[in-house]
Amino acid sequence: MKASQFTVSQLKYPQIWLLAIGAGLIAINLAVLWKANNSSLLGMTFLFWAAISSLVWEKRYSLNLESEIFSSFFGLTLIALLLIKSISLTSFGVFLYLSPVILAIGLALLASGFKGLKQYKAELFILFFLSLPKLLSSWLDISLLTAKFTTLILWYTGFEVARNGTLIYLPTGSVEVYSGCSGIELIFQLVGLALLFLLMFPQNLKYKILIPFVAGTLAFIVNALRVALMAILVAQGHMEVFDYWHEGDGSLVFSLIAVLLFGLFCWFHLGRSELRNKDATESSK
């Protein structure tokens, strides 16, 4: 072994050490999200961390745990800067969304170096989906599309509704669909879950395209229903209830509904896949 290399496998029980370090850092990351009072991001990040940790643990015996001194130093620097930023955090923004993937890159560098990053490329890519809504929010705005679809929902359900841009008018009130209410964050989160599903249950090309499409479509429709409900509440003068569904815990209910609907879709899809495989096996006998 070269003197310029640090081999994690030389340590006694290296996987346990890495597990302990990773678990501690993930706990800190979740605590920061808790402090930020972003329940939606906290729930999704917890789910992503749990799934990705499980995937990495399953392939632990095939991982190359060798990191060069520079890679280890760079990884530790990333982690240290992340911890310092978390401690001194006075405002919450893009950092919250970027912190999981930065933490994951630092851990991967510490464990396997730059050459070993390819072992975690799928997991890193999926974590990156948590940060995409904030990174793309400056130029990817679907508020107008959400407003149009919400207006269509209200019209089909019998309400007298009109629209001007992102403003939705009912006879006794109106709401405006801002970028934060457009559903883009929920769409990316559900597409990230779809990619996690594909990573855990490999599919053919058809379903690799279909499953993320279904996830994004479900997220968009569920969010539009939420906007429609808020428009009705404003029109009826129920502002306290509106605040609950807009910024309170009620906003999480629709995220949960979207996740549950997507989970049901995946469950039925797996069930049908097992039946197809069983039929194919029996017919080949």
TrEMBL record:
Keyword field contains Protease: yes
Superkingdom to which the source organism belongs: Bacteria
Residue stretches spanning the membrane: 16-34, 40-57, 69-88, 94-114, 135-157, 177-198, 210-232, 252-270
Keywords (A to Z) from UniProt: Cell membrane, Hydrolase, Membrane, Protease, Transmembrane, Transmembrane helix
Top-tier EC class: hydrolase
GO biological process, one term: proteolysis
Membrane topology: Multi-pass membrane protein
NCBIfam families noted in UniProt: cyanoexo_CrtA, exo_archaeo
Species whose genome carries this gene: Brasilonema sennae CENA114
Name of this chain's protein: Cyanoexosortase A
Cellular-component GO terms for this entry: plasma membrane
Coiled-coil regions, chain positions: none
Protein localization: Cell membrane
Keyword field contains Hydrolase: yes
GO MF: peptidase activity
EC number: 3.4.22.-
